[in-house]
Amino acid sequence: MLVPTCTALIVAAGRGSRFGGPLPKQYALLNGQPVLRHTILACQAAPAISAIRVVIAQGDEAHYAAATRDLDLARPVLGGLSRQQSVLNGLEALTEVPPDFVAVHDAARPFVRPQDIAACLTAVAETGVDGAVLGIPLADTVKRTDPEGCVVETVPRVRLWRAQTPQVFRFATLLAAHRAAAPLAEAEATALTDDAAVAEKAGLKIVMVAGSEDNRKVTTAEDLARASIMETRTALGFDVHGFAAGNAVMLCGVAVPHSQTLAGHSDADVALHALTDAVLGTIGAGDIGKHFPPSDPQWRGVSSDRFLRRAVELLDARGGRIVQLDLTLVCEAPRIGPHREAMIASVAGIAGISPDRVSVKATTTEGLGFTGRREGIAAQAIATVEIPRS
Length: 390
What we know:
By secondary structure, this protein is α/β, with parallel strands linked by helices. Helix content is 31%, strand content 29%. The model has no long low-confidence stretch (mean pLDDT 91).
């Protein structure tokens, strides 16, 4: 018995005007490799795919060659002025050795799963339909607006889907549908934004197949940042401040009444200093003294929330996010318990995370050492973050 063949036709001819930047999005780097390369490798990992062909824009040959180096692919196909024309060009190129099925896939969807490709192919091969479209049932409420942006109606979301790719069809059937659409005016052809739209126009029977939210499309630079494969990093921060004359100590940005204060160049918030060093450590950015040297008079007496906030900004600039901040305060006095919730809320607000991602604990050294002698407070912090893999 012959095994049906299915070619993945990867459409990489778009210009990605919403993406911006010097390169089309399919050639932008994702974890050090072009997005297109990730997409091709994902299709190669799918047992349902027997061959791969890529459609590119004229002028992108050098970018394509760099992205596909050592992948041993057939020569690329040049696309047209619209997506419909580009896909048709790709389908026509496949007529040299026509497959039984074709899976048309966007180059900007690098996270497609092999099981989803297989599910689409099975839906077409075993049910007698003409095509299958991967998608997600719509869960959000949908509103329709007038030209001024005012809501005019709520659209029932039942049986509404967000279409993804791949979209799998019987090869000869899809080829005929695209050939029929070829004479359309440019505006009408441009409105056919996926192959299901072309198939619908031809009266073909298409089913939806539930996909995954992981199969997201890279449309903007922000999408690319979110799409980057994340790695988890953890770093430790530690700080100590001695007591001085005063009537309150600053801990986590909260003024805690006490018979003394903490001595330091800023407000001596030992907790925020430890947290700052922990966050800086996750991105290899040195310590608090590097960014806010005590020799610089501008930091004299300032609130330490500025230090932690700056560390979080540096993490944000790397595309990272805080997963958890864990803090342990070591002191005999003052008592931390009555102020714990306020401290958690303060740290969460400074770091821009939810309070359930912040832990504040307290302990003593059973009378031992400088904290046991009530000479000061020590703080140990652990920051856990996610950051794009370099």
